[in-house]
Amino acid sequence: MYLLVQAHEYRKYSDLLEQSFRLRKKIFADRLGWKVSVHGAYERDGYDDLHPAYLLWCDEGLTQLYGSVRLMPTTGPTLLYDVFRNTFPDACDLVAPGIWEGTRMCVDEAAVVHDFRDMRPDRAFCLLLLALCEVALDNGIHTMISNYEPQMRRVYQKAGAEFDELGRSDGYGRFPVCCGVFEVSPRVLAAMRRKIKILEPLYRRPQFPQGAASSPHGSRRDPIFNHPPRSLEQDRRLMV
C-alpha cells in the first residue's frame, strides 16, 4: 500500500519513517557516496525538520517499508536551490505553488525481493514513480522536480514518465547529478499506467470519518500543505 504521511501523522507512522531514514542512509551515504547528513544508522537533514510530506510504500500491516519519497513545495527551502543549484541554468525559475520537489527517492531492494519474488528493482521504482504521479495529481501539483544520477533516466523512461533534463553537475558523489522537470497530468498518468500495465490506482486518498468538519478554505484540489515563504537568510542556514 502507498501512504502519504503528513506532519500531524509522523507519530502514527514513526516506525515506517524510521525505516525510511535507515534506508536513505544505506542508499545515499553507503551505496552512492553522497555527502549527506548521517546520524548513526540514519540519514536525516534539516529539511526533514520542515514538516515535509513522505510518500511511503509499505505492506498492509504497516510493518515493512519498501520505498519512500520526500515531498516539499518549491515555495520554501529546497535541496534544489540550496544544494543542487549548479544542476540547472540560471534562467530557470522553478519556484511556484504547483511545482514540488521530490527527493530521497529510494527502494529497499532486499525487502522487495523477499516479499515480491518476481519483482525486479526497476519494476519497484516504476511502481513508486506511478504512485508519486497519482499523489501529485490528486493534490493539485502540476510539476515535480527531482535531482538524480544519470542511470535513473532509464528507469524514468521505463515507467513512462515525461521529463526534461535541465542540466547536470559533478561534485556531489561518484556520478554527476542531473536536474529533471517532470510533467504531472492526467495524460501522463494514463501513459504511465499503460507502460507499467497497472490499471487500478496504487494510491488511495484516506477517507475522513463521516461528519468530520472540513476547512472552509480547503478543497480536494488543495496542495498537501503549504510552507510560508522563507527569507534567503533562513535558506542559507539549512545544510544537508
Description:
It is built from 7 helices and 9 strands; from the N terminus they run E-H-E-E-E-E-H-E-H-H-E-H-E-E-H-H. It is globular, with a radius of gyration of 17 Å. Strand 2 and strand 3 form a beta hairpin. The protein has a 7-stranded mixed sheet with strand order 1-4-5-6-7-9-8, with helices on both faces. It has a two-stranded antiparallel ribbon with strand order 2-3. Helices cover 30% and strands 22% of the residues.
- Total helical segments: 7
Largest sheet: 7 strands, mixed
Which percent band covers the strand fraction? 15-25%
Rg estimate, integer Å: 17 Å
Class inferred from helices and paired strands:
alpha+beta
Mean pLDDT: 87
The beta-strand count equals 9
Q: What is the H/E string? A: EHEEEEHEHHEHEEHH
Chain-wise SSE layout:
Blueprint: E1 2-5, H1 14-31, E2 38-39, E3 42-43, E4 53-58, E5 65-73, H2 79-82, E6 99-107, H3 109-115, H4 121-138, E7 143-148, H5 152-159, E8 163-169, E9 177-183, H6 186-196, H7 232-236
Parallel strand pairs: 6-7
Antiparallel strand pairs: 1-4, 2-3, 4-5, 5-6, 7-9, 8-9
Keywords:
30% helix, two-stranded antiparallel ribbon, seven-stranded mixed beta sheet, 240 residues, alpha+beta
Q: In short, what is this structure?
A:
This protein is α+β, with helices and mostly antiparallel strands.
